[in-house]
Amino acid sequence: MIVVPPGPVSFSADVLPIFRSGCDGVGCHIGFQASGVDLSTYTATVNSVGVQYGETIVKPGDGSNSALVDKLTSSPEFGQRMPIGTQLSATDIEIIRTWIDEGASNN
C-alpha cells in the first residue's frame, strides 16, 4: 500500500531524507554530480540537468514526465534504474512524484 503524507509534500521533511538515504553513495548524487545531477539541496535538485535527458530533471507540476521520476522506475528512458544496486520503495517514489506534481516547492 502506497501512503503519501497528508497535506503538501515537503521537500525538506519528506523528499530530502529519501535522497539522503538512497542517493548518497560514493560518487552518486549527494556531494557529487553524477551525470549532472546533484540532489543535496533544493536549489541543486531543481536546477540539475540530467546529461542523458538534456533538460532539468524536475518539471514542476508534472511528476510523471520528470526525468527524476523516470530514473526511479523499473524501465527508465535512459540508462539504468536509480539508485544502483537497490531501489526506492513505491511509497518513496510516489512521495517524490507528488512533490513534483504539487509544484516542486521549496518547503
| DSSP helix fraction | 25-40%
Report how far the terminal alpha carbons are from each other.
26 Å
Number of domains: 1
Order of helices and strands: HHEEHH
Gyration radius (Cα, Å) is 12 Å
Would you count the extended β strands for me?
2
Strand arrangement, major sheet: 1-2
Q: What is the subunit arrangement here? A: single chain
**Percent of residues in β-strands:** under 5%
Average predicted confidence as pLDDT: 89
Give the number of helices: 4
Low-confidence stretches: none
How is the main sheet built?
2 strands, antiparallel
Shape from CA axes? globular
Which keywords apply here?
two-stranded antiparallel ribbon; mainly alpha; 107 residues; globular
Describe the overall structure.
- The protein is mainly alpha-helical and 107 residues long.
- The chain has one domain.
- The protein contains four helices and two strands; from the N terminus they run H-H-E-E-H-H.
- A two-stranded antiparallel sheet has the order 1-2.
- It is globular, with a radius of gyration of 12 Å.
- It starts with 10 loop residues before the first helix and ends in a 6-residue tail after the last helix.
What is the gist of this entry?
The chain is mainly α.
List the helices and strands and how they pair.
Blueprint: H1 11-22, H2 42-47, E1 49-50, E2 55-56, H3 67-72, H4 90-101
Antiparallel strand pairs: 1-2
